[in-house]
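2 proteins. here.
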Amino acid sequence: MRQGKPTIICTILRRACTIFWCGYFYLKSADWKGNKPIPLKNASAAELAQIPGYYIMDQSKGMAETVAALAPSPVNIGATPWLTEAELDVYVSEWGRTGFQGALNFYRVFVDRSLIARFRLFAGRTIDVPSAFFGGKSDWAVYMTPGAVDVMRSRACTRMQEYALLDGAGHWLQREQPNPVCSALVRFLRNNTERSQRP
């Protein structure tokens, strides 16, 4: 039985999406050796130029072109044990069904004046409950806003109990290092549950 054109096109598009997302997950992980984040001094062009191209893209390239140029060979990507083909297929299927708009809406906050105005309602307020921050040592997102981590640790979270950047993890730390992440969360929750139950 021959496949019709729509089925072939869908198959090609799905394969292209799979290759793209596989490369994107890889690039933002600790497995990609180009991830060596450092705190940025400020938001100048020279400082931002240190961030990999998958975050700060060339004006003439879209996301797919950027990932294709940076992504390693399928052999290297296939060696990623923390994201199986079956798991990747779930992401591809869902983003194929719903689009990626929801995830991109987060970034609209930074450029839409009406959304920025809403966030100003919380300016200067603090988080006054026990808090913790866990990130990946290879995740540039930790340093994307110069000085934000320091403000979080010193002023925004008045009861910051733990701050840790985990070895062997990039942006997907709960996938890349599930055991250390779970251990850190359980420790934090156990410590705070015990404290809240003391007379």
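next one coming up
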Amino acid sequence: MPSLAIPILLLASILLAPSLPSSSRLKTSLPLCSFLPPALASAFADSEEPPAAPSPPFEIAITIDDLPFVGGLGPGDSRPQATARILKALAEHHAPATGFVVCEREGDDLLRQWLAAGIELGNHSSAHRHLDRVSLADWSADLRACNAKLASLTGTPPRWFRYPFLQTGRTSGRRDSAMAIVNECDLRSAVVSVDTGEWALVAPFVQALSNGDHARADSIGSAYLEHLMAAIDHYRAFTRAHVGRDVRHILLLHANALAADRLDSLLTRIEAAGGRFVTLEEALADSVYALPDRYAGPIGLSWLYRVAAADSAWAWDDAQVQSMMERFPAE
């Protein structure tokens, strides 16, 4: 058949097709092969791309560390204003969150902002000390002092504890001794499934704002979003591979300038990917968080790495942080 035969037959088939209203011709969702004679329909059917499958839904809890606030801000901004933007984003997306307080840091006025917004506060220690660099007695006193402050500030003892640096002990003995202290304080460890390295972008972001380099600041803000969504995708894939299913996830963020600037966009992206926001308590009800911790060592890790005992699984996380630091080095 000459090379023009198929295009001519195609045109004739469309022109001879049953008449449709003009608006339907423009908006119809019928596939092209619906208008072709049977002899030609099969020739075009294979070339049509199937619609993209929607992302499977998932549930995720938002947790925010290092309250009252950590890191600097751009010119003209203030910690109360930045905190208000974080809280506004959470409220607009109906995203429950839990904030973890470093109790020795100044900013009780900021903590009252969180409380007024209905955010539950958890214990992140008094001085954010590394468990393996202090005695257990000092570490215990530090934890208990933060408990007392939060109980005084809120009127009720905190329910949750987040280990500084996610580091739970270099040896199994130290890990178990620290957990016994947490239990004695009637706290539950608020582990993380989606660990993140967004902290590496904060100093370059603030520097760009201070230098008036808004293009660079915007690029860093975009990298923040890309990293966090990549981390969610990574850990969801990890759970399917190592747990056999998706789980209710717990996302780690920090109360910093990037969260103030980009949290609204992040929550929008999570929703678009099929995410539904749940409380920390709802997330921790997932049976994956009742599995035994099989890791003891110097690195602070996602709970998923701990229960899977997947050697060097954190290479992905290290590569992410290294890439961000090379792309946006701090001055």
